[in-house]
TrEMBL record:
SUPFAM superfamilies: Thioredoxin-like (SSF52833). Cu cation binds at residues 62, 66, 148. This is SCO family protein. Residues 24-183 form the Thioredoxin domain. One of its GO terms (molecular function) is metal ion binding.
Amino acid sequence: MKKNIVLILLVGISMIGCGSSLEFTELPIGGNIEAKDKSGQFVSFKSFQEPVLLVFFGYTYCPDFCPNTLAKIKAAVEPLSAEEKTKFKVVFISVDPVRDSPETTTKYVQFYLPQSIGLSFSEDTTNQILKQYAAYVQKTEDGQSFDHSTYIYVLDKNRKTRKLIKSTDSKEVITKSILALSGDSVQAK
């Protein structure tokens, strides 16, 4: 637990003063996932053809942050050309494996973005992934909703996390991140 808190603090401190700049570095969290989803399908981020993945944690019953973030991503990619839209995929990972199936989660996220996939894993696998990404999730007192982090993790073609986009960042940060990382012009530091 202390190790996770230290890691979160280090990432947070490294981001202070960065604002909405387009600095890319290899972050020590996130990255590739290799696991079976709840339907028994093997999932590996490395098998996706798109050079950029936008990974986001949420759940289909979320009343605010999830739909707002997905709408922001949708608005951010609307100005992209058809060719540029093939350069990324949104990966929505459910933090509510009890209620969200892979099919329901995919249908939910594709309502906003056709170039996306929704994933739902067992509770144990979900917890391992959350730890890997240093993502915060806490069930609320009513037991029906979750408080959760709202970062968009931007992964490059090698499935290294290169940027965390905050929910307060502009949609242009999303657009520019996709274009920069999909163009092979940004090298790992």
